[in-house]
Amino acid sequence: MNYLYIVITMLLSYLIGSIPFGVVIGKFKHIDPRNEGSKNIGSTNVLRTMGPKYAALCMMLDGFKGFIIIFLIKWIFELDIVSFIGKIDILPVYGLLSILGHTNSIFLKFKGGKAVATSAGVIAALSPIVGVSMMVVYLIIFFISGLSSLGSLISTTLAVVAGILEIIIFKEIKLLENSLYIAFYLIVFGIILYKHVNNIRKLARNQETRFNVGLQKKLNEDKKSENNINNTITIETVIDDKEHQL
């Protein structure tokens, strides 16, 4: 194996990451998420414009494209990437290229999504426990609050902290060998934070859109029932008042 192999596989990582599954899925519904809702290609906007089934599919595919190439190199083919560049493990570079492919897709004139699902897929391939935990935390917060952006920001922050701590604690602080892992986590955090700047502003003003899911759905239903009861009581009161007047 040689450096040409590295270049080819890195290019492949970027191209796989560039596949805009949100747009591809939209073709079957004759909906382009870039022209609807928040105009984002990610699963949140797919949920908004196409429904939960398509959103779940989009999330899985976006995560899968971040996961697959690192999984193949690290776990299936068991290639020793470290040996290519001295002692430095360059696997995180593959993951970062997949993420950059999603945020700057060559198929969308270098535009793209916010890369939360793709980042989770990459992290799951690099560190299964951290990656799966990131997904679980996101889903828990989303189904409790109805706020996808809040789930994305909190789950990413926790994943970055956990990933760096894992390196420090379990990899004996081999700074040179694992420097790209630490850099990867920090860059991912920066990318996702940057992509969510508008969402952060809306969250601060309590103006972020809440999805009608999970606990939020139950709260909305309870509130609706309460309003219906209050309206009924009001109508009955008005009728009683008119009857007394008569």
Can you give me a brief rundown of this structure?
The chain has 246 residues and is an all-alpha fold.
Largest sheet: none
Report Rg.
23 Å
Would you report the number of β strands? 0
Return the structural class: mainly alpha
Strand content: under 5%
Low-confidence stretches: none
Count up the helices.
11
Characterization of this structure:
It contains eleven helices and no strands. The protein is mainly alpha-helical and 246 residues long.
Explain the layout of strands and helices.
Blueprint: H1 3-18, H2 21-29, H3 43-50, H4 52-76, H5 91-103, H6 116-126, H7 128-145, H8 148-170, H9 175-195, H10 197-204, H11 214-245
Helix pairs in contact: 1-4, 1-5, 3-4, 4-5, 4-6, 5-6, 5-9, 6-7, 7-8, 8-9
Keywords for this entry:
mainly alpha
